[in-house]
Design brief:
By secondary structure, this protein is an alpha/beta fold. It has a single domain, classed as Vaccinia Virus protein VP39 (Rossmann fold). The chain contains ten helices and nine strands. The strands form two sheets. It has a seven-stranded mixed sheet, with helices on both faces. Strands 1-2 form a two-stranded antiparallel ribbon. A hairpin with a 5-residue loop joins strand 1 and strand 2. Helix 1 crosses helix 2. The radius of gyration is 20 Å and the shape is globular. About 7% of the residues have low confidence.
């Protein structure tokens, strides 16, 4: 016997108002635009159409359908085992980042390829540049330490003519560097974005995966199958998210005049104190913290700039209004 039909809220109100995914997934429309999704759609215990979110292939097909229907990305795929992020959450970051730029532009979001963004750790999925370009016309450079990931991201761009010459890629040869070796001399970015590795070790990443699977399936999982995928460098690094973000903040000081706004997601609330301390140490001129939420999951974006108010106005005049 199925469980009684659940009443769902009409909108996911924790998502950004401009997010295309505030309503529940319409699997009829999604399978029409992406027939490959159809075999993965089933009725859950509440007799609602859904997919098995613990199945990596089902999650990948859902992403493919969302990118195709909502963003016009006709061809999208990733190699087996690579991170397949939830599209609504990634879209939220982009929309909140647009608001950060808007806050300094007299209430108007700067659009078009004159707005240049750097995605640190773009990954094989290339999702941030895809959404940022399709929503606001921004141009992107995606960096990564993994050549296989960059090859995959490059293939996505090649297979979608609308993206050509809008998104480029650079390999980071030094894993401990974030901006060095990527931002070139006399090069400027309006925004950097990043979804840092969360865990501090492989064992910690596997424990987190098992916990997530237990929550999804309501059964005791013993094998850490990554429903959203992820290579080691995508999921963990020495010191975890906290150290990665602190390193990013420290290194950003050397590129203070090369970028208007630096930003990163910070998954864990307890990491904020350490991040704020790092920002004080590098004497960031302005810091913004933006709360995000999807379902029961909460997160945040921390954005900072080294530009004075006068330098900010000069940047806008020279680069956005030229």
């Amino acid at each position: 016997m199925p469980e009684p039909k659940r009443e769902h809220p009409k909108e996911k109100t924790r998502l950004h108002p401009r997010n295309r995914h505030r309503e529940r997934y319409n699997f009829k429309l999604l399978t029409e635009s992406c027939p490959e999704l159809a075999p993965f759609v089933r009725l859950n215990v509440y007799s609602d159409e859904s997919i098995d979110f613990s199945d990596p292939e089902a999650v990948k097909m859902l992403n493919r359908a969302l990118l195709k229907r909502d963003y016009g990305i006709e061809q999208w795929d990733i190699p087996a085992g690579y991170l397949c992020p939830p599209i609504p959450g990634r879209a939220d970051y982009i929309h909140h980042a647009a608001d950060v730029l808007c806050s300094k532009n007299y209430g108007k979001i700067p659009t078009g390829d004159k707005v240049r963004c750097l995605d640190i750790g773009v990954g094989a999925n290339c999702v941030y540049p895809l959404i940022g370009n399709r929503e606001y016309g921004w141009s992107f450079v995606g960096s990564d330490i993994d050549p296989v990931a960059l090859e995959s991201a490059g293939r996505i761009v090649e297979l979608n003519p609308l993206l050509k010459e809008k998104i480029g890629f650079r390999l980071q040869h030094q894993p401990n560097d974030i901006f060095f070796g990527i931002i070139r001399k006399d090069e400027f970015f309006d925004l950097t974005i990043c979804n840092p590795p969360f865990h501090a070790s492989l064992a910690e990443a596997q424990t987190g995966t098992l916990r997530k699977l237990n929550n999804l399936t309501h059964e005791k999982a013993t094998l850490p199958v990554l429903n959203f995928g992820g290579q080691s460098n995508e999921l963990w690094c020495k010191g975890g998210e906290e150290r990665f973000v602190r390193d990013m903040v420290r290194q950003s000081k050397f590129f203070a005049a090369s970028c208007f706004w630096f930003s990163t997601s910070v998954s864990k609330q307890s990491h904020l104190k350490s991040v704020y301390e790092a920002l004080r140490n590098v004497e960031a001129v302005e810091v913004k913290t933006i709360s995000m939420g999807q379902g029961n999951k909460s997160g945040r974006i921390v954005a900072w700039t080294f530009l004075s108010p006068e330098q900010q106005k000069e940047w806008i005049t020279e680069k956005w209004k030229a």
